Amino acid sequence: MVRKLLLQFILPTLLTVGIIYLALQSMDANVRARMVSAAENFVPHAPNWALIMLQPAAIQIHIAAAASAFVIGLIQFLGPKGKMPHRILGWIWVGLMLITAISSFFIREINQGSFSLIHLLSGWTAVSSPMIIYAARKGNIKQHRNAAISLFMGGLIIAGALTFMPGRLMWRVFFG
Q1: What contacts 51, CB < 8 A, 6 or more positions away?
Q2: pLDDT band at 2 (very low <50, low <70, confident <90, very high)
Q3: Which residue, 11, 25, 52, 116, shows the most beta carbons closer than 10 Å to its own?
Q4: 167 and 31 Cβ atoms separated by less than 8 Å
């Protein structure tokens, strides 16, 4: 029981906090200062969807693919496994995750045109996404499940949480 709790909750939580900490430390000091300023000027409001429409195509594609993958991922976790809908949605989900990862390589606003630590998650997503399908097709359901959960948590939850940091686009859409 304790081992299961450790593996399923405590270690992923510590990993998430560590990744967020490293991402914050790798940012330019001016970027961090703008984030603090944005958090101090927080004003509740309805989401400003126009901000997304003003972004370059790569960002719009990235947001659409990530949001769709998040919804389908939740459906996959809650729905029955091994049936045809799970398989079809799984292929769609992997495709959306690959689109999300690939489009992120064209988004480099955090480090003034350079790649950031968040892009490591994109590389991991591009490599691990096909492995999820490979594991399922080989009948290794445990590996398939663990890889899918890891990718969902890392590629959508952790990376998604980082997009809501003060001053970033999703922060501005919902809170700025």
Answers
A1: 169, 172, 173
A2: low
A3: 116
A4: yes
Cβ neighbours around 74 below 10 Å, total: 12
Our measurement of the distance from residue 88's CA atom to the centroid of its chain's CA atoms, rounded to an integer in Å, reads 21
Model confidence pLDDT, tens digit, residues 63-103: 999 999 999 999 998 888 889 999 999 999 999 999 999 99
Q: Please give the Cα distance from 54 to 61 (Å, whole number).
A: 12
- Please tell me the total count of domains within the chain: 1
What residue has token string 């948590």?
Answer: 153
Structural domain containing residue 117: 2-174
Cα separation, 158 vs 122, in Å, equals 12
- What's the chain's average pLDDT? 85
Alpha-carbon torsion, ordered 165, 170, 173, 176, to 10 deg: 10
